[in-house]
Request: fold
Amino acid sequence: MRVGIPHAGNIYIPFRTLFRELGTELVVPPPNNQRALDLGVKYAPEGVCIPFKLTLGNLIEACELGADTVLQAGGFGICRLSYYAKTQKEILHDLGYDAEMLTFDVSQNKLRGILQLIKHVSDNAPWSKVIPAFRFGLAKVAAVDDIEKIVHKMRAVELEKGTANRIYREAITAIDEVADHGTLKRVVKDYSEKLYQISRNPDADSLKVGIVGEIFVVLDPFSNLDLEVELGKLGVEVKRAIFFSRWTKFSLFLNPLGVDEWKKVHEAAMPYLKRDVGGDGWESVGEKVFHAHQYDGIVHVAPFTCMPEVVAQNIMPSTKEDIPVLTLLCDEQTAKPGMLTRLEAFVDMLNFRRKRIGNLKPGVIK
Reply:
């Protein structure tokens, strides 16, 4: 079995580790790029969102590379994610690819369903191998996210722009390649120290900007046109609530025990939005309200035509919390120069606002 997966941020790293541990061949298409998007736009139904188009392009490229089985997220809910796998399967078959489409449920029976899927694609490997491999994959998810959180801080204050990005790329490659837990811990420790040793601008007074929105475009740099990197260049410290490690921790382990990681955020949204509207729309509204006195501003990132985020976008200007919000809609028509112009204007406005009201203090880099 040759298993292909679509990209979503750095999620390929734990998948590659998992299948390598189990002896299953994983087909990883090239990182998200213009060709993948062009393929998705060409064959996807008109009007679907960029996550659908990009993951479809990824799956086509995986089939071109010889994948006979492809994985896609699925489940039940208001978001169109529940239609991805079924629709993409039909498109792949219409294009002449006979790859089997397997789905892992991200709405119900998450942990059990994912483990059973892993066992299936690894030729029914024993649980004594599946469980440790799965745990090692999760450890790499956490390792990548730990490094990213430091990079978010250092991009804003580094003297030589691009240094944090260079170390970050080296760290991601090292994390991808390590083969045991001990080495993984050392890699994270070593690269964390390298990041904190970056020469900093002593006069830096970093703005703090939260990034909220639909999980795929928030986490996928190609979709959001390297939003976090560009904010870092402008002296902004990114504050992002969405991480794969957070999703796995709560969705797979704590939510089944009754722990709701978004409880406070949902409660904050209640005066304006009282129920789930699908996807991450409820959380987008709640994040704005919940962090209104902690952030200088919010960048709301959403796929064009994403209904949950359209709901959130229209509610945000009506909240009483005084925090500016910039909404960026992502699709194949979005151009980076236009996005940069809007970001620069937004950051200029936030700097002026901070000087005017003087009620926000810069964060402390340890």
